[in-house]
Every structure is written in C-alpha cells, then in structure tokens.
Amino acid sequence: MDIAYIPSPSTGVIHLGPIPLRGYAFCIIIGVFVAVWLGNRRWIARGGKPGTVADIAVWAVPFGLVGGRLYHVITDYQLYFGEGRNWVDAFKIWEGGLGIWGAIALGAVGAWIGCRLRGIPLPAWADALAPGIALAQACGRWGNWFNQELYGRATDLPWAVQITAGPNRDAGTYHPTFLYESLWCVGVALLVIWADRRFKLGHGRAFALYVAAYCVGRGWIEYMRVDEAHHILGVRLNVWTSIVVFVLAVVYLVLSAKLRPGRETVVEPDRDADGGKDGDDADATAEAKPSDAADTAKPEPAKAGAPVLTKEAPAEAEAPEAGKR
Fold this sequence. Notes:
Largest sheet: 2 strands, antiparallel
Helix content: 55-70%
Strand content: 5-15%
Number of helices: 10
Distance between the termini: 146 Å
Radius of gyration: 34 Å
Order of helices and strands: EEHHHHHHEEHHEEHH
Strand order of the largest sheet: 1-2
Number of strands: 6
Low-confidence stretches: 273-299, 302-325
C-alpha cells in the first residue's frame, strides 16, 4: 500500500536556453532578500537610516558565502580531496554545501568592515538582522530539498520525503530534516522578535539569543541525519559545534546584560549633528573666520559732529590773539 510522502523534484535545475536556473541558488537569494527586507524595517524602527542594512549586506553576504563554503569543504574534505575525487568540485557551490557556522563567522567579518565604514556599532546591526538571518536559513534549507540532500533516517511517516536513487543515496522515504530545520528557524525568528519587543534587547543580545536558540534545534536535528560526517567521541562534529557555540552565546547574553544593560539609544549617529558641518558649509565657515577677525579689529566710524583726533593734531588748539584779523 502506498503511503503519503513529500515528493522530491526530479531535477534541481531548469535550463533557460544556455542559462541554468538552480533551485538551490534561488533559495539562497530569496533568503538574502528576506533578511535584508526585515532587517531594514527593524533598523529603521531602532532609529537607523533606510538603506544602511543593504549597504552593509553588500559586505556581509559575499564574506558569508565564502565562509560557509570554506567550513563545508574543510569539515568534509574527503568529498573533494579523497581518492577518486576531483578537487575542482570544491568550487561548485551551486551543487550544495554551505556550513552556517562558517557563513556566520566570516559574514560577521564582512559586516564589521561595512559597519566601520558607516560608523555604526556592529552589535546593533546584528540585533536588527538576527530574525532575518533565521528566516534566510529557513528559506535556504529548501535548497537541500531541490538537491535531495541532508535527510534523516528512513521512515514511513506521512511527512516523509521521497528520495530517488542517485550517487551516494538509496531510494526510499526519509525524515525531512531540512524541513524540520526550516520550521525551527521560523520559530527562532518569532522568538527573537518577541523577546526583543518584550525585553528591549540591545548590544548584540538579540543576535546572541538567535544563535543560542538555533543551536538547540540544530543539535537534535543533526542526530537524525544520515549523511556522511566526521565524529568525535561518537558524536557528529556539528553537534559538538552546536554545543560549544550555544555555551558561548549564553555566556555572552549573561555578561552583556550585566556589563551593558538596556539598549542603545542611538544606533546610527548623524555625523553632522555633533557640531560638525558638511562640505560647503564647513568651508564657508572656515573662510569667514579671518575676515570676521579683521572686522572686529577695525575702529568704529566717528559719529557726526564729533572731532576726529589724529596723531599729528595737537591735544589742545591755541586761542587766537584778541583783535587780530
């Protein structure tokens, strides 16, 4: 008897003439747009300027993609540098393989550069982006569905995903761990939004909450996966990573709340509001100062009818002789 299941697409790419349109790439792109859109709204609500989030994302996204790919290649190097493997495949990012840990770590470096150029604090920007990043992950996980990867153990549950036979995979129905993580990320985004409104999180604590909450879900979902992975003491590497990152995020939450309570009052200071003037106004002020000083040194003009004394004039005028004409 046939059982219910989630069908997988027959292919993860559609060719538009010579141009391949890949489902994995579309999911990543949609996630980036969602993160920037929501982050921009939250940034403006915090007092920031429109467009700042997108400007910094121009730095953060490329760094994040490189970092995510590096983490995947390093932790699964046997897929690209083992016997019978082609190392060129390590650059084929469209075939899947992005590690969120590397994406966040190196993406933070890119965001830091962008924030420095704009003169704004990185923690405040990260707080605004936190729920958007979670939603971006929720969208990106569907790229694994297009590629028929990152599924769990075999199951006959109604929501099982059907996997067709292919390289390194057997046909059957499996736990859709990509779907579990996608739904978990949506829940994380809602949690961060609620907590931020309720407790006025600031100084990077909303971002730390997102990291901690994501790690909790990633830990148990990782246990269900059956794809090849490195193990330490019998536990998958990504589970250990989740534990370590979770502890660091919680420690940051506690220490930050004690050392820097409250929320930033100004997230994007106006450079012209602290006494400085921009461009032409500043130059005009600088040019006006010498002339003003000169005008101050000039004596006031004499009033009408008042005698004007000069250095050559005697202090007292001689009286004319009597009767002399």
